[in-house]
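Morning run. Coffee first, then this:
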Amino acid sequence: MSGINLVSKNIAKITEVPHKSTKPPWKHPDSEMNQGVGLVQTKYFHFALPPNELILESGEKLDPITVAYETYGKLNDQRSNAILILHALSGDAHAAGFHRRKENPGWWDSMIGPGRAFDTDKYFIICSNVLGGCKGTTGPSSPNPKTGKEYGLDFPIITISDMVNVQKHLIDHLKIDQLLSVAGGSMGGMQALEWLVSCSDRLKSAIIIATAAKHSPQQIAFHEVGRQAIMADPHWKDGCYYGGLPPARGLSVARMVGHITYMSEISMAEKFGRRLSNNGNPHKFSTGFEVEEYLHNRGDHFVKRFDANSYLYITKAIDSFDVSRGRELYEVFKGIEAKVLVLSFKSDWLYPASQSKEIVKGCKLTGVDVRSIRPMDTMPFSSRLRKRHISLNIFYTRYLLSKG
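And here it is:
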């Protein structure tokens, strides 16, 4: 049996829909959590206490800093099996497993666990919430020690480099000298690129998924529409909405715009067609299509778990990212000894496969050991993953890690 077929056979268990139950998932013997890492807890790392403030790329100082993170698996005696998972814009530290009394698993649960791509029987997996986030790591909604109130727009401008710098402090705290790999998609892919360029000596490999070395004008434009939607919301109040009503409408619209860019015209047609919604209560100016209901649901769900100011700061960090620092890509990739895997997806309108090809080309021109596969049809974070594409993803991930 071929390697891919073997992986596909194992993946069948991963993609099974868990049995529905009204009981909490940690008590149900047939739930998916028993196939993965099980119950997990978020941990917190505190650093940058005065006078050792963190100096940001802008030159501003930030203190103190809290980092929310989770770990899965066990660090070996050599401390050589650690993999850092890097989340996208709306992600957080909860990448796998279940939190007590929560029904939904981590955002990349299908890829992390025993026998999965990031096999917790072999690897020690780390995932942290980024600087500027709103799920436990210091960000605009965190208390400003100088005022005792939330930072709001007093929070300093941050960059992808700043996010990675904070992650380095976490890795140092965990006493890990070199990571086996870093892996992430979209904004997580940018962080992986930054790790690769700024401290390649601390990596053995990098897995870069559906991202860009820098944003195009069109990508910046999409984000700007979202930011303007938030700032136009009367509840935004120049970022001082904490304690009152949040700018939910603006943030919802921003998320709706984002979701449109995550899928191609073909994938949207396959997913929705022109089917009418069955909610029976369309808006007066809505035509009642299923795709409209989907976008509204995504937007409404997002505002319950994400901070609007974090959205502004993080999208600005993404737009300002340029791993080349204004040079040719191959020039900044010179001297990198870490192995690289690049994956892309046809259905991703925001990060087209052509941008992944630019990264691969830059690696090859300077002799970096890089592998890539032709663009796959399905986004890695979609709830409707196709088994063969997960299989390919896992097959090549395992291949890279085995060579690390």
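The CA atoms of residues 277 and 293 lie 7 Å apart. Good start to the day.
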